Amino acid sequence: MPDIQQIRADFPILHQQVHDKPLIYLDSTATSQKPRQVIEAMARYYQEDNANVHRGIHSLAERATASYEGARLKVARFIHAPSPKEIIFVRNTTEAINLVANAWGRAHLKPGDEVLITQMEHHSNIVPWQLVTQATGATLRYVPITRQGELDFAALDQLLTERTKIFAFTAMSNVLGTINPVAELIKKAHAVGAITLVDGAQSVPHLTTDVQALDADFLAFSGHKMLGPTGAGVLYGKRELLEAMPPFLGGGEMIREVFMDQSTWNTIPHKFEAGTPAIAEVIGLGAAVDYLTNIGMDWIHAHEQELVSYAWDRLSAIEGLRILGPEPARRGGLLAFTLEGVHPHDIAAVLDMFGVAVRAGHHCAQPVHDFFGIPATARASFYLYNTLEEVDVLTEALEKARAVFGV
Ligand code: PLP
Question: Which of 119, 158, 197, 364 is the most exposed place for a label (fewest CB within 10 A)?
Answer without folding.
Answer: 158
